[in-house]
Amino acid sequence: MEQTWQVQKKHINKNPLMKLILKKFNNDIIESISLVNPKSVLDIGCGEGFVTIEVAKKIKAKIVGIDKEKDAIKYAISNNKLENIEYGTRDIFKLDYFKDKSFDLVMSLEVLEHLENYEKAIEIMSKLSKKYLLLSVPNEPWFRIANVLRLKYLKKFGNTPGHVNNWTKKEFMDLCVKYGKIIKFKPSGVWNIALLKIR
């Protein structure tokens, strides 16, 4: 529940700078998705659904949001008024529920940095997608520097609790090209966003 609350707190933060950064992030995600015009989207690790809802407002697609945290999904369901979204509690490593190639686009935002077996996760995402992946991770070292400037997580040199992986822009691009062709790569605030056409 603690991690769920941290994500929720970020999205309901009233700090004008944080609101501006998140608005830009949401817009950059929507812009990337718009390039490929998917009719179906799977959002893996959707948390409380904040980004999912913003995407659903602009992208005319059926969107399924999943997260393993029951409290996050419960909040997402209670906060959603849109008909083109459905939510479910699922673990990224136990997605036999979905058939291969079930979605035009699979996205996973701010998730890979939490996963020790991130390569297996990307392989699963690639199997579920017909064509495209959309991934985002913190842009290091800038993400940690931003935390230090905010006097957050100083004992961990700015590394957010729960982050077990860190990628620079180049490292993330090198990871992405293992799984597909990069259609669009965009830094957004303290994150990097990559849209891939899978092999």
> In which order are the strands of the major sheet placed?
3-2-1-4-5-7-6
The biggest sheet, with number of strands, parallel, antiparallel or mixed sense and barrel status, is:
7 strands, mixed
Q: SS-based structural class?
A: alpha/beta
- CATH architecture grouping: 3-Layer(aba) Sandwich
What is the average of the pLDDT values? Answer: 92
Name the helicity range.
25-40%
Notable features of this structure?
alpha/beta, 7 helices, Rossmann fold, disordered N terminus, 199 residues, seven-stranded mixed beta sheet, single chain
How would you describe the overall organization of this protein?
- Helix 2 packs across helix 3.
- With 199 residues, the protein is of the alpha/beta class.
- 35% of the residues are buried.
- It has 7 helices and 7 strands, in the order H-H-E-H-E-H-E-E-H-E-H-H-E-E.
- The protein is globular, with a radius of gyration of 16 Å.
- A 7-stranded mixed sheet has the order 3-2-1-4-5-7-6, with helices on both faces.
- It has a single domain, classed as Vaccinia Virus protein VP39 (Rossmann fold), CATH 3.40.50.150.
